[in-house]
Structures are given as structure tokens and as C-alpha cells.
Amino acid sequence: MEKLEKKYTIKSHDCDESGRLKMSILISYMMDTMSHLLDPCIKIEHAGWVVVNYQFDINKLPKFDDQITIKIDLCYYNRFFAYIKFLVKDIQENELVTINSQWILFDLLSRRMIELDSDKVGISDAQKIAKLPHFDRIKVLAGQEDFQRSYRVMYSDLDVNHHLTNGRYFDWIVNTISRDFLNSHSMVAASIQFRKEILYDQSALVTLTWNADHSVSYHTIKRDEQILTVAKISWVSDK
Questions:
Q1: Beta strands of the chain (E only): which ranges?
Q2: How far apart are CA 171 and CA 212, in angstroms?
Q3: Which site in 6, 59, 93, 104 is 20 to 30 Å from 223, CA atoms measured?
């Protein structure tokens, strides 16, 4: 598999107050890497890549002034879905974060999925397979919420696909957790599944539910009781 990659230097405004790279910014780097490498291969007008699933395994989040490389390490696809594995490495080639993800190619006018072939996927030796790697379904803990907060999609929240950019989902989710907890814990794994897009000026309710020992947080983003996005994050104490 050819290694497709792009390098980044972490800026201060890309970090939270603990100095770690924000997850929303990591996602924007991944989107930038993918669009830089794959968008030129899209021959269909008004088409764009849209993520369906992310699964993060985190050894260590980079910090301010770190130099990192984001690589597209694997790519499989079937009729409608592409599976892409990203690796985030530091300057010494240590693996910091592994991200498994699932994508569709979307017609932005008709709002329909586009069938994939090797030209559209854009990686010369991407493999077409009948069954893509499985993503575990995240459970929804309805009626057990510990906290909730409402948001509205503003113009600055939109991406080129005309809906809420996926990094902003993570900002909304993280902002349901207390500042003290975020400054004393590290994220070691996260999964997020996008079921339905959120458009300009729409409102959504973001919920947080903890497991018994506060090592796992469960989140939903919903509108009028319809689940739009679900997420699960695993945490460890920094002490």
C-alpha cells in the first residue's frame, strides 16, 4: 500500500488549555489530508467525501509545537463505502493515534450516495472487497443523561458540504464534560457515528451519560428526539 501523507506543526491555537491538540483540530487535519490527496481524483461535479464512522485509538495526543505526519495507511472500498485507516506519527515515527474511518462519496445537490470505483476512490492500489471492517454499534443510554446542552448551527460551523463540519461535533460533545475533568484526564479511545447531517440554523441537543466509575462517557446529538450522532469516549486519569 503506498503511503499517502501530509505534515503538520501544532500551533498554540490548535490546543486546549492543557496544551494537547484538540480532537476537533485533529479531525480537521485528517479532513485536510484526505481532501488534499483524494479530492483531485473526484471527477463528478458537486461531489464530496462525507464521514460515517470514526474510531480513534490514542496513545498520546500531540502538543503545541510538535511536528506530526498524518498518513493514509489503508484503503478498502465496496459499492458505496470506503474504509480508510489514518496513522498520526511524531517526528521520531512513534504512532500517536490510529484512526479507522468509514466514508461515502456524496452528491451535494441530490443528497445521495455515489457508487465508488477505483478512479473515484483515488488511491491506485485501494482494494475493492465485498465486506468492509466492522464498526461496533454505540449503545444509546436513553433516559440516563447526566448533563445536556443545546446548540444551534451557525454559518461559521459549516463546511464545504454545507452541513455542520465533523470537528464541530466533537467540540459540542467535549463541552458537555466539566473543565476540571478534562484538565485531569486523557482520552485513550473514542468512537463517533454520524447517522444524519445537521444543517444551517438547525438546533440540536447534546447529552452526556457516564458509566459507574466515570471512565467512559456516552453522548448523543439529537433533534426532536431523532438521534443524529452517537459517541463513546474512554478516559484515564492523569494522576
A1: 4-9, 47-58, 67-77, 81-90, 95-107, 112-113, 127-128, 147-152, 185-194, 203-210, 216-223, 226-237
A2: 24
A3: 104
pTM over 0.70: yes
Measure the CA–CA gap between 215 and 237, rounded to whole angstroms: 9
Q: Which of 12, 4, 16 is nearest to 171 (CA)?
A: 16
52, amino acid identity: V
CA of residue 115 relative to chain centroid, distance = 22
64 φ, ψ to 5°?
-50, 130
CB 204 within 8 A of CB 221: yes
CA distance 7 to 33: 9
3 pLDDT band (50/70/90 cuts)? low
pLDDT band at residue 114 under the 50/70/90 scheme: confident
Q: What's the pLDDT band for 1 if we cut at 50, 70, 90?
A: very low
Q: In the prediction, which pLDDT does 130 show?
A: 83
- Spell out a b/e string for 90-115, using b for 16 or more CB atoms within 10 Å of the CB, else e: eeeeeebbbbbbbbbbbebeeeeebe
